[in-house]
Amino acid sequence: MEAKDLPVYQFVEGKPLIVTDGMKKDFWKNGFIIVRNLLTNAEVIKLRSSLERPESAVMGESYDQGDGDGRNIRLTLWNHPGNDLTGMINRCEKVVNTCQELIGGEVYHYHTKIVQKEPRTGGAFQWHQDYGYWYLNGVMFPDLISVQFAIDRADVGNGCLQVLRGSHRMGRIEHGRVGDQAGADIQRVYEAEKVMEKIHVEMDPGDGLIFHCNLLHRSDQNNSDRRRWMMIACYNRADNNPTKDHHHARYTPLETVSNKAIMECKNLDDLSGKWFINPHKANPECLPTNPGKVR
C-alpha cells in the first residue's frame, strides 16, 4: 500500500510539465517528488525495447558491482548524454526544465546509469546519499538532483528504492566502502530511521522519482522472479562546477530538446558524445576534460 501524503504528481502527454510552488515545497520538504507517467507508455516501451536488443550498444558497456552481501548489480554508466535515445530522454524539456526549477538554476548532465537487478540474483544498494561520495569529486555544494525512471515495475517484491523522507535536511553523512559501494555511517542511519519515515517507492514503468542528492536511499536484493531495471539521470547545477578533474563531467552546457524528440529519435546505437565508465576496463576516452558544448 502506498504511504500516505506522498508528493505525487502526474505528467499529461502533450502538455508541458509545470513546476508549481506546491511541487517545489514538496520537493524541499520531503527530499523527493514522484511524477507518474513521466515517460509515456510509448516512450518507456521504446526505451525498454531498445535496451533489450542483443545488439544494444548501450548495454554492451555494462559491468557488475558487488553489493557486499554476495550478489551483484549490473550497471551501465556514462557521462554526457549524447544523441541516442537515452540522450534524448536525458535532454528533454520535461526532465531538464523540471530539475532546473526544483534545484534553482541551470543544470548540466553529470552522468546517467542503468541499474539492472535480475530475478533471484540482483543485489542490494546500501543506505547512502549520492552527495556522500560526489562530495569527494570536488563538488562543493549539494546542488545536485537525480531522476529515476522505472523501466520495469518496481515494488517491494523485486527490490524497489527505499527512502527516508526528509533525510536530505541532515546534511552530508560520512560514507565508507561496503563491497563495491559507498555506504553511509550505519549508526547515523539507525538514528535517522527512528525519527524519519521509511518509504518504499513503488513505481510502474514510466514513472519518475526526482530526488535531492542528500536524500538517504537504499534498495533490497531482488528475490523475485521479476527483473527490475531503472535508468537514473543525475544533474549538477551549472554554478556548482567541480573544483577538480574527476571521472564525472565538469560543467558542459546542456542543449535541451523537445519532448517529441524521444519518439522521433531513430538513433539507438550511435554513442558518439557519450563517455562510458567501466571500473573493470581502461577507459582512456573518459579522462576528464571539458569538451565544450556536448549535445
Automatic annotation (TrEMBL):
SUPFAM superfamilies: Clavaminate synthase-like. This is Phytanoyl-CoA dioxygenase family protein. It comes from the Eukaryota. InterPro entries: Phytyl_CoA_dOase-like (IPR008775). Its cofactor is Fe cation. The lineage of its organism: Eukaryota, Metazoa, Chordata, Tunicata, Ascidiacea. It comes from Clavelina lepadiformis (Light-bulb sea squirt). Pfam families: PhyH.
